[in-house]
Design brief:
- Helix content is 26%, strand content 24%.
- With 200 residues, it is α+β, with helices and mostly antiparallel strands.
- The strands form four sheets. The chain has a four-stranded antiparallel sheet with strand order 3-2-1-5, covered by helices on one side. The protein has a four-stranded antiparallel sheet with strand order 4-6-9-10, with helices on one face. The chain has a two-stranded antiparallel sheet with strand order 7-8.
């Protein structure tokens, strides 16, 4: 006995079911892709800030341990495609990094060549610590600020695309808070947003 059309087994989806599935998928993608991008940017910035904090803590620890000034010398710049590096080394009288003792020199680079690094430091591109772990200061500058930006922008509101590392005169190192309104790091000395990727 033959089964009629009504009795045939149905397989697959109807056109309406397919359209509903595609619409739901498109909505989920529209919600998920920006969130994933924000997650990746946040992760990159946190990693870079943590690398700088580790280098600064190493320099401060070596200064105290060896009883001699130590510092972090930075390669600053906003040129895309060039690696930004840091070097931890003893400081000479200038003060600048003394690379003549390779067993005391530690170097590294930031994770992404799309990052730019700017700094406001007592000595150009050097954050130094004395044997007591305090910031080496010159003149009226008694704090250091280092900023790492993605594509030379501190933020694309409300998403933060930068992290600022602050070093107090006491030698205390920390990451600056972020303004929730626009994503810019906050300079705690002035309570103002840091909006420059070259001179925070």
């Amino acid at each position: 006995m033959h089964r009629g059309i009504e009795g045939r087994d149905q397989a697959g989806m109807t056109l309406v079911e397919l359209l509903v599935t595609m619409t739901i998928s498109a909505i989920l993608l529209a919600i998920g892709v920006p969130s994933m991008r924000a997650f990746v940017i946040n992760n990159e910035m946190a990693t870079s800030a943590n690398q700088l904090i580790a280098a600064l803590n190493l320099a401060r620890g070596e200064a105290v341990r060896l009883g001699t000034p130590f510092g972090v010398c930075l390669t600053l710049g906003t040129v895309k495609g060039t690696q930004k590096t840091w070097t931890v080394a003893p400081l000479n009288a200038t003060p600048a990094c003394d690379l003549s003792k390779p067993d005391l020199v530690h170097a590294g680079l930031l994770t992404d060549d799309q990052l730019s690094v700017g700094a406001t430091t007592p000595v150009a591109a050097v954050v130094g610590f004395d044997p007591l772990g305090r910031l080496v200061t010159v003149g009226a500058t008694n704090a250091a600020r280092i900023i790492v930006c993605l594509n030379n922008a501190t933020s694309i509101p409300p998403q933060s695309t930068s992290r600022a590392v602050l070093v107090a005169a006491s030698g205390r190192i920390r990451v600056a808070a972020t303004d929730p309104a626009n994503g810019n790091p906050i300079n705690d000395a002035t309570a103002a947003d840091i909006t420059s990727c070259t001179a925070p």
